[in-house]
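The record is given unchanged here:
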Amino acid sequence: MNVVYISISGNTRSFVQRLQRFAEEKNVNELIIHAKEIDDNTPEEEETEPFFAFVPTYLEGGNGIDNGDQEILTESLRDYIEFKNNPNLCLGVIGSGNKNFNDQYCLTAKQYAEQFDIPFLADFELRGTNDEIQNIYHLLCEKWQAAVDEF
């Protein structure tokens, strides 16, 4: 399975790395995770296989409804997904954030889902829990298998 992600504080990177370790340990149908971290220096390239996107939420203050819904710091992932045919290969987005921010929690992932017409699949808070790792892995396996059968 392919994953692209961006990590500003290290929380998303930690989650994806733990997800990779979980996949290697479980080795369910040999579905390991190939992860690519995107940052401001990553050249945009056209993906050739389906992938999932993991994005944290960083916004310009406010409440996420009337104001404070402008994405900051994670735009390079948006640009990467936007490149050529990549939106059509993105199977869904997983969001992360801090639940203390109420309506802003995972707002960036929800915006990606709307913009690229892809499903918002799951969320996790901060670095995520072991249960979230397990649940999200199984969800990704299910979605990946369905996509591969179609692809």
